[in-house]
Design brief:
Elements: H1 3-14, H2 25-28, E1 47-52, E2 62-64, E3 67-72, H3 74-85, E4 89-94, H4 100-105, E5 111-112, H5 120-123, E6 127-128, E7 133-142, H6 151-154, E8 159-162, H7 166-174, E9 179-182, H8 185-193, E10 199-203, H9 204-210, E11 215-227, E12 230-231, H10 236-251, H11 254-261, H12 267-273, H13 284-296, H14 301-346, H15 349-364, H16 367-377, H17 387-413, H18 416-424, H19 429-459, H20 471-482, H21 485-514
Parallel strand pairs: 1-4, 1-5, 8-9, 8-10
Antiparallel strand pairs: 2-3, 6-12, 7-10, 7-11
Length: 523
């Protein structure tokens, strides 16, 4: 989970002029009418869209390893139950960790649930429900390690944790020089196994689900962590309605049952909810997950073949998304790039200046910033684009600047006498450009344009930050789910190769046919 960028997003969201924090209905004794609720992103009066980052997010909300197309997790079960109690249909919306809160600002969905810690900084940015889960931090060691079972004992040792969490703050207070902070849980546990870390301090649910047979939990519980459901500050009514349902789930034992199925009912939750009853619910979800992971992550040939065959539909879908976004973006880049090049080469002074300014601004700013601005920034001006449209537009506008320079070079390579000869033959200036200059220039830049499309295919991985699941996002999901970076990486790399190979051949044919040496790379 990208907690650093998420914390920044929360801070920005809090500054975007939302109303102040109001007291929830459960604190005042009121229960709002469900029919009068404002539900952003809803498609009808029964829809309740909610967001989480379902990529590598065990046990919160994640793709079922036994059925990759199905979502599961204890937060997923909780949201389905809350939605049903409110008489609505819960609809999961995937968004990256750092995009969850900005998505609230543009009304993509009504609420966010993703193990968000209810820190003072977070509370200043969004409205929170009452805590739906209270937990602790735990120390994780390799089986052969001893003695590192308290915070004091960890001093002087290299300890890893997740960025921008309560665990990180605890470690920094005790021994800041030896803290290693991570974005992703899988990388964190991998480094502990490989000896790059001496220990891990992390939320107990994560420790429970990511711990393998060669790792162990040690020592007493440390600290206190509370998770809350996040809402926009200008929608206290929906927050109050969800709070009312959460209170009912706690009092009637439904929350207890959900957590027990995932092996997450703890003494901390019993104390928090006041539910001290002895659970008779079996941890079926926990057992199913462990058994599936053991079966799918096996090292036998049969297990690997089964695992990799199951990846093919997802990789194929990601490849189609990558190709579709890239192809449409390249069409836009070619068309707009030609217009910019003509404006710079033959336009009047104001057009030359504007075209040059556009090219310099786009080439001088990172593509990632442009993607995020188009998807999250444009709604402030009333322009809301789907993730697919935003991805195509951002890539197309970016590559248009580079294509413009390629085409301008091609236009300038056409001898001036060609224009003069066309004018002498009684052509207008526009006819000369359309029929004489542009065709010659286009032949010159075709090989470069083909190579640019191959580069665009790879740069399309950046659209994963706005919820599009293309090849790179598919790799992140599969590799972090099954802890298989080599085999999955080879399959995704092969998919990129197969998608781009026809265009590589096309570029070589164009070079050979036109007798041009293509300059490699423009970035």
């Amino acid at each position: 989970m990208k907690r650093v960028r998420f914390a920044l997003a929360l801070a920005l969201f809090g500054l975007w002029g939302m109303a102040g924090l109001s007291a929830p209905a459960w604190a005042e004794g009121g229960t709002p009418a469900v029919a009068s609720l404002r539900v952003p992103g809803a498609t009808d009066d029964r829809d309740l869209p909610w967001a989480s980052d379902g990529e590598a997010n065990v046990p919160y909300v994640f793709h079922d390893p036994a059925h990759e197309g199905r979502m599961t997790g204890f937060e997923y079960d909780l949201m389905q139950t809350i939605s049903a109690r409110m008489g609505r249909h819960g609809r999961f919306v995937q968004n990256g960790w750092d995009g969850l809160i900005p998505g609230l600002s543009r009304d993509l969905y009504a609420l966010v649930i993703d193990g968000i810690e209810m820190t003072p900084e977070h509370k200043a940015a969004v409205l929170f429900s009452r805590p739906y889960y209270v937990t602790v931090d735990r120390i994780v060691l390799r089986n052969d390690e001893k003695g590192l079972d308290t915070l004091d004992a960890l001093k002087g040792h290299v300890v890893g944790t997740i960025k921008s969490t309560a665990a990180e703050r605890l470690l920094l207070d005790h021994d800041p020089a030896n803290v290693r902070s991570y974005d992703e849980e899988t990388n964190l546990f991998s480094d502990l196994k490989n000896g790059r870390l001496d220990a891990i301090l992390i939320d107990e649910p994560i420790a429970l689900y990511y711990r393998s047979d060669d790792l162990k939990l040690v020592g007493p519980p440390i600290g206190r962590v509370a998770y809350g459901i996040a809402f926009p500050k200008n929608n206290p009514g929906l927050r109050d309605a969800v709070d009312s349902v959460l209170g009912d789930l706690m009092s009637d034992g439904t929350l207890h049952q959900i957590l027990a199925r995932w092996n997450l009912w703890t003494p901390q939750m019993a104390d928090y909810t006041g539910d001290q009853t002895l659970s008779t619910v079996q941890p079926t979800a926990w057992v199913d997950y462990r058994q599936t992971m053991e079966r799918m992550s096996g090292s036998s040939v049969q297990a690997m073949v089964h695992r990799y065959v199951s990846f093919l539909p997802l990789i194929g879908s990601g490849a189609l998304m990558t190709l579709g976004v890239s192809a449409l973006a390249m069409v836009l880049a070619v068309a707009m790039g030609l217009v910019l090049a003509l404006a710079r080469a033959y336009g009047v002074a104001p057009l030359r200046w504007l075209a040059g300014l556009y090219v310099e601004i786009v080439r001088g700013t990172p593509l990632l910033i442009q993607v995020l601005f188009i998807f999250y920034g444009l709604p402030a001006f009333g322009l809301r684009l789907s993730p697919f449209a935003a991805g195509v537009l951002s890539l197309g506008l970016n590559y248009a600047a580079y294509e413009a320079e390629n085409y301008r070079a091609g236009l300038l390579s056409v001898p001036r006498g060609q224009m003069e000869a066309a004018i002498a033959l009684n052509m207008t200036h526009m006819q000369a450009l359309r029929l004489v200059i542009v065709p010659q220039a286009f032949r010159t830049v075709v090989p470069v344009m083909t190579n640019d499309f191959i580069a665009l295919l790879k740069d399309s991985s950046l659209v994963s930050v706005i919820t599009l699941t293309e090849l790179s996002q598919t790799y992140i999901r599969l590799s972090s789910t099954y802890y298989d970076y080599i085999g999955t990486g080879l399959m995704v790399g092969l998919a990129y190769l197969l998608v781009g190979l026809p265009f590589v051949r096309l570029a070589r044919m164009a070079e050979k046919r036109m007798g041009r040496v293509v300059a490699k790379g423009h970035h």
